[in-house]
Amino acid sequence: MSVTVIGGKASEDLAKKLSKRLKADFISSDLRIFPDGESKITINANPKKGKIIIVNSTYPPVDSNLMQTLSLIAKARQFSSDVISVIPYLGYARQDREFLPGEIVTLSVIAKLLKASGASKVIVVDIHSQMGLKHFDIPIKNVSAVQELVNHFKKLS
C-alpha cells in the first residue's frame, strides 16, 4: 500500500523525517497569510491512492495552525479515506473538562472538528491528560517523546 506524508508548515521538518523513515512519498505545503489573518494553504502535489499522513502541530498560533491542520485533512480526504493526523502539540488539550460552570470543553469541539474534516485516526504526543482521549470517537493514540528526550540529553552528558 502506498503511503504519503503531507507536511504542514508548523511541522514540515518532522514530516520530512517521518516520510524518510517510512520510505513514503513526501508532499510539502505552501502557506499564505492574507492581511485579515486568514490562512490559505496549498499542497504541492496530489497524493497517490493509499494511506495519507498529515503532520502539523497546533503550537502557537494555535487557532491558525489548527485551521491549517483541518484544511490539510479535508484536502487529503479527497484522495483517501485513510487519513491519519499526527499532531505533535495538540492545542486546547488542557480544556478537557468543565472546571467551572459554563466553561466549554473545547477539546471535545476539537475532536469533533478533526473527525468532521476527515481524519480517520489521530496521533498526539504527550497529551495533557489521558482523560482528553475520551472526547474522540475516532481512534486516537497518545505517544510519548520522553524516552527520546532522555536519550538526547544522555548524549550531551
Question: Any chance you could write out the topology, listing elements then pairs?
Answer:
Layout (H helix, E strand, L loop, with lengths): L2 E5 L4 H11 L2 E3 L1 E5 L5 E5 L7 E5 L6 H16 L5 E5 L18 H12 L3 E5 L14 E4 L2 H11 L1
Parallel strand pairs: 1-2, 1-5, 5-6, 6-7, 7-8
Antiparallel strand pairs: 3-4
Structure characterization notes:
Helix content is 32%, strand content 24%. The chain is α/β, with parallel strands linked by helices and 157 residues long. The longest helix is centred in the middle third of the chain and has 16 residues, at 62-77. The protein is globular.
- The secondary structure category is alpha/beta
For the biggest β-sheet, the strand order reads: 2-1-5-6-7-8
State Rg.
16 Å
Query: What gross morphology would you assign?
Result: globular
Q: Quote the distance from N terminus to C terminus.
A: 42 Å
Beta strand %: 15-25%
How many E-type strands?
8
Looking at this protein, list some descriptive labels.
alpha/beta, globular, 157 residues
Please give a quick description of this structure.
With 157 residues, this protein is of the alpha/beta class. It is built from four helices and eight strands; from the N terminus they run βαββββαβαββα.
